[in-house]
Amino acid sequence: GEDVEQSLFLSVREGDSSVINCTYTDSSSTYLYWYKQEPGAGLQLLTYIFSNMDMKQDQRLTVLLNKKDKHLSLRIADTQTGDSAIYFCAESNDTGGFKTIFGAGTRLFVKA
Amino acid sequence: EAGVAQSPRYKIIEKRQSVAFWCNPISGHATLYWYQQILGQGPKLLIQFQNNGVVDDSQLPKDRFSAERLKGVDSTLKIQPAKLEDSAVYLCASSLEQAGGVDTQYFGPGTRLTVL
């Protein structure tokens, strides 16, 4: 079945850029998403990209999509301590029913 | 606008007991999801409703889990009887509709279940 994989942990210094990577297996993915989860809270959608795009920028966030390699990344510029959270990559497609598959999440730790 | 509400926030039960969780989605959202999030993992879809009909319950352990969404609004998820491996956070999410477009899901804070 479809699978989404992420590295489990990333540590950066405040002010540096963070890059969180994700790979997925579903070649028919329609949309790819990045969600953020803070302690004790549910997931919050940060941004998404349509599969026919290769880049999307939204303020400090840049999403890069390499569809050939099925690789998605999220770059956070000028990382702040408030960015410390778990970041989930997810993909959805509309074949056989619309379903979103989540990765296991990358825990971002920002050091002051 | 009010977000997705869930209750209770925490629940501790012993194995073989029953438990129920409640979810109130964002007003007007047709699609409702229940996810199970085990510690260190991503959310796993248990069941998806479109209004009050089930769209996908392929990963719901139907021998012990049940869910309903009466009148296409609130939903309850029940576990009877609970097992130790059911310890997890149960997340409810809702989205405006499922029309093949971007699936922006709004999540509630979750219910943390501990089975002893």
Provide the descriptors you would attach to this structure in a database record.
heterodimer, A: 112 residues, mainly beta, six-stranded mixed β-sheet, 11 strands, globular, B: 116 residues, seven-stranded mixed β-sheet, four-stranded antiparallel β-sheet, 0% helix
Can you give a write-up of this model?
The complex is a heterodimer of chains A (112) and B (116). Chain A has no helices and 11 strands. The relative contact order of chain A is 0.34. Chain A is mainly β and 112 residues long. In chain A, strands 2, 4, 5, 9, 10 and 11 form a 6-stranded mixed sheet that branches. Chain A has a 5-stranded antiparallel sheet with strand order 1-3-8-7-6, with no helix packed on it. The N and C termini of chain A lie far apart (40 Å). By secondary structure, chain B is mostly beta strands. Chain B is built from no helices and 11 strands. Chain B is globular and about 40 Å long. The termini of chain B are far apart. The model of chain B has no long low-confidence stretch (mean pLDDT 92). The chains are: A mainly beta (112), B mainly beta (116). The A-B interface holds A 4, 8, 30-31, 33, 40-45, 48, 50, 88, 90, 92, 94, 97-100, 102-105 and B 4, 40-45, 48, 55-56, 91, 93, 98, 100, 102-110.
Oligomeric organization of the protein chains: heterodimer
Mean pLDDT of chain A: 91
The coarse silhouette of chain A is globular
Main structural class of chain B: mainly beta
Radius of gyration of chain B (Å): 13 Å
User: Can you tell me the residue ranges of chain B where pLDDT is under 50 for at least 5 consecutive residues?
Assistant: none
Helices of chain A, by number, come to: 0
Mean pLDDT of chain B: 92
| Beta-strand content bin of chain A | over 45%
The greatest interface between two protein chains, and residues involved on each side, is: A-B, 25 and 23 residues
Order of helices and strands of chain A: EEEEEEEEEEE
Helix content of chain B: under 10%
How many strands in all of chain A? 11
Terminal CA distance of chain B reads 37 Å
Major pleated sheet of chain B: 7 strands, mixed
Element-by-element helix/strand order of chain B: EEEEEEEEEEE
Helix content of chain A: under 10%
**Largest sheet properties of chain A:** 6 strands, mixed
Number of DSSP-assigned strands of chain B: 11
